[in-house]
Amino acid sequence: MVPLYVALLLGYGSVKWWGIFTPEQSDAINRLVCYFTLPLFAVEFTAHIDPFEMNYRFIGADAISKLVILAVLAFWAKCSSKGSYCWSITSFSLSTLTNALVVGVPLMKAMYGQVGVDLVVQSSVIQAIIWLTLLLFVLEFRRSGVTITKEQEKDVEGNTENGGEESNRPSFWYLMKVVGMKMAMNPNSYGCMVGLAWAFVANRTRGDGYWGHCYGFAW
User: Fold this and answer.
1) How many domains does one find in the chain?
2) Which of 45, 132, 32, 46 is nearest to 89 (CA)?
3) In a domain, 140, yes or no
4) Dist. CA 79–CA 43, nearest whole Å
C-alpha cells in the first residue's frame, strides 16, 4: 500500500504546497482520468472475470448489506429532524461504495491470495454495473431537478406580471429524460458493459459446459 499512498501524497503536495500544477491543469488531469483512465481500468478488470464462476452468495450478502444501510439512511432522512436526503446519499457512498480495485486488491492478495482478489474484482464489477449506476442516476436526478426548478423560478420572476405565482416543478418523466441523456454520455458505464461482454464471450465454452452439466444433472 505504500506506493499508492506515496503517489497520492505527491499528487496532493504538487498542487497544494509546491504549485507544480495549476487548478486548470488539475482539472484537465481529472477529466483525463474520468473519461479515459477509469473506463479503460474498468474494462481491464472486468474482462478477466469468469461470469459463470462467480460467488453468488458473496454477491447476495453484499447486496443485502447495502440494502440494509440504504433502508436505515432513508428512515433517518424521513423521521429525524437532522436527517436529509443529500446527506443520506453521501453517507451511503462513503459506507458502501469503496475503491476496492485500487485499495482492496493489494490487501486481499496479501492476506488471502488469488481467492480474495477474485472476490474483490467480482464485487467491484457488480458495484460498477449496478450500484454506481444507481448512484449516478440519483445524483443526476437530484441535480437536474434542482437546476430545472431554479431555471423555472427565474423565468417566472422575469416573465410573469404577478410575482406571487409559483413555478411548477418539472415532471418525473422530463427528469428521467434528462438523466438518461447524461448517463448515456458517461464512459464508465460503457467500460463495465464492454468488459463484461468480453468476459462472457471469452468464457462461453466453459459456460456452455457448465450449464450443460447442470441440465444433464437435473435431467
Assistant:
1) 1
2) 132
3) yes
4) 41
